[in-house]
């Protein structure tokens, strides 16, 4: 077994799940500055005195997080623990706070969470640990239970305060240690309120604890994670960040040293890699029930640690580079023969797009036909286009925001006598797997230079700000964590897929030229 003090030497390709279905005890994504000593063992032993026995992976996090430089200061100013729920991150929080109060002499420790109820629950747990341990309880001056003022104060003056981050709570408090629970909901405003308060502290430390990113609210977590991935790629530890993430790798680009493939989200080995508590607090039977109940995306995020992380502002053209896309632009291109339409709308119903795809010689032509605010115009405009061009398909993602328009579209097409094409329904409802297939086909067509477009601004803007979201072993266009309207991109992707599916069907009255 790897020594607890061997933190900086752990690399991704050493992670092999135990054959008895127990969770991997070392993180897949890891960076930490070197340290000459650690207060981790003392913290682990103190927690045990209070009845909190830490697992191997929790002890490892304590040793790395409490690593010390030769001058006695913390080697890591920031410590981030990213692990799926119900694995025991609360034990790490409690062990660190007990150490800060009773071992390290920290004058003020601030525990904050996004929601007040989460903070209060953490307060109750550590109060129970302290008050049920004679050697700790006798050092307590007061336990303050007033709502919004929850705190533990020692006879020697040290305090542990519990706050919610909403409403600017905690602004102005100078904490020696700041414990930020639910760090997947942590933005620039909260960090702007926190960091200046630590400037005058001699040896401060910030701990971030949470699970996989959930899009735009995960601004700070995404920033920390980028630093960790950059450190792994370069082989040089981040000088002030200890980052530990238990997750699977859904993308080859995140494999890390020695990794040649991504993880299978359906494999028990993936559950073991992302959940160090497997075999201790979690069972494979339970995680399998979760998988059957949850959507693939939610299961990947909540149990396998596959997060949605916003990109740094200004980080654009992440999926397809601009030069490649622009090179495929042709303002004179047009569809010859059969056409497929697709409809997409934003989750907020703020904008919708109708796009088309068809053949232009050996290439696939894609085009934004209409892109306007709202959804009220979509049905009438779509019926007008169908009657004029006789498409082979009208494609809509049955699990996407535009799915709510399907009944009205079908009713309007039936009224117009255009509800079928050949022996098929004209409206082609996509499954989740087909959405992933469509995205892959679109990407491949761009890479193979078999796609052509009109270089329209709405499509270029959408592609410049777009990112991916995992869907099983594939991916789709991500709406979370991006600041642009990607409906034109989603719609052309789906239209191109629909054309490939239905190109052999010759619609009645279809024009010869687009």
Tell me about this structure.
The protein contains 16 helices and 21 strands. The chain has 514 residues and is α/β, with parallel strands linked by helices. A nine-stranded mixed beta sheet has the order 1-11-4-10-9-5-8-7-6, sandwiched between helices. It has a six-stranded mixed beta sheet with strand order 18-15-12-13-14-19, sandwiched between helices. Strand 13 (351-360) and strand 14 (363-373) form a beta hairpin. It is elongated.
How would you state the average pLDDT, rounded? 87
Structural class call reads alpha/beta
Morphology call: elongated
Low-confidence spans: pLDDT under 50, at least 5 residues?
Answer: 1-19, 252-260, 509-514
CATH class of the largest domain: Alpha Beta
**CATH superfamily assignment of the largest domain?**
P-loop containing nucleotide triphosphate hydrolases
Radius of gyration: 27 Å
What name does the CATH topology of the largest domain carry?
A: Rossmann fold
Largest sheet: 9 strands, mixed
Biggest sheet, spatial arrangement of strands: 1-11-4-10-9-5-8-7-6
Span between N and C termini?
A: 66 Å
Our count of helices gives 16
How much of the polypeptide forms β-strand, as a percent range?
15-25%
Known CATH architecture of the largest domain: 3-Layer(aba) Sandwich
Residues in helix, %: 25-40%
How many domain regions? 2
**Total beta strand runs:** 21
């Amino acid at each position: 077994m790897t020594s607890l003090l061997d933190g900086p030497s752990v690399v991704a390709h050493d992670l092999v799940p135990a054959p008895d279905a127990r969770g991997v005890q070392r993180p897949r994504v890891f960076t930490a500055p070197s340290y000459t000593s650690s207060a981790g063992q003392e913290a682990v032993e103190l927690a045990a005195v209070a009845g909190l026995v830490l697992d191997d992976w929790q002890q490892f996090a304590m040793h790395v997080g409490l690593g010390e430089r030769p001058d006695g200061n913390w080697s890591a100013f920031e410590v981030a623990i990213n692990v799926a729920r119900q694995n025991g991150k609360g034990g790490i929080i409690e062990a660190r706070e007990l150490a800060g109060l009773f071992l390290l002499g920290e004058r003020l420790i601030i525990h904050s969470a996004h929601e007040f109820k989460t903070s209060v629950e953490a307060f109750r747990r550590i109060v129970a640990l302290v008050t049920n341990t004679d050697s700790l309880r006798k050092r307590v001056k007061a336990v303050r239970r007033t709502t919004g003022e929850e705190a533990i104060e020692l006879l020697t003056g040290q305090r542990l305060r519990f706050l919610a981050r909403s409403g600017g709570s905690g602004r102005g408090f100078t904490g020696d240690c700041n414990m930020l629970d639910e760090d997947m909901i942590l933005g620039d405003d909260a960090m702007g309120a926190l960091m200046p308060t630590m400037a005058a502290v001699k040896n401060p430390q910030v701990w971030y604890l949470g699970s996989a990113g959930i899009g735009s609210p995960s601004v700070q977590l995404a920033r920390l994670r980028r630093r960790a991935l950059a450190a792994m790629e370069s082989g040089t530890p981040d000088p002030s960040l200890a980052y530990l993430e238990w997750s699977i790798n859904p993308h080859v680009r995140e494999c890390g040293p020695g990794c040649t493939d991504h993880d299978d989200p359906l494999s028990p080995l993936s559950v073991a890699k992302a959940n160090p508590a497997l075999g201790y607090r979690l069972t494979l039977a339970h995680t399998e029930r979760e998988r059957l109940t949850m959507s693939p995306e939610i299961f990947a995020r909540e149990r396998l640690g596959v997060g949605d992380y916003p990109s740094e502002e200004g980080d654009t053209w992440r999926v397809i580079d601009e030069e490649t896309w622009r090179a495929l632009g042709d303002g004179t291109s047009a569809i010859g023969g059969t056409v497929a339409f697709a409809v997409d709308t934003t989750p907020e119903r703020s904008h919708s797009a109708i796009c088309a795809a068809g053949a232009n010689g050996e290439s696939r032509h894609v085009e934004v036909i209409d892109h306007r605010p709202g959804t009220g115009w979509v049905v009438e405009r779509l019926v007008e286009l169908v009657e004029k061009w006789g498409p082979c398909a009208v494609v809509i993602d049955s699990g996407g925001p535009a799915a709510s328009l399907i009944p009205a579209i079908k009713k309007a097409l039936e009224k117009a006598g255009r509800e079928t094409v050949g022996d098929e329904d004209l409206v082609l409802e996509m499954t989740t797997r087909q959405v992933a297939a469509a995205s892959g086909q679109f990407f491949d067509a761009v890479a193979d230079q078999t796609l052509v477009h009109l270089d329209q601004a709405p499509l270029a803007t959408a592609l410049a700000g777009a990112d991916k979201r995992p869907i099983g072993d594939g991916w789709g266009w991500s709406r979370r964590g991006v600041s642009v309207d990607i409906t034109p991109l989603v719609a052309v992707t789906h239209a191109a897929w629909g054309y490939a599916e239905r190109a052999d069907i010759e619609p009645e009255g279809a024009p010869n030229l687009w």
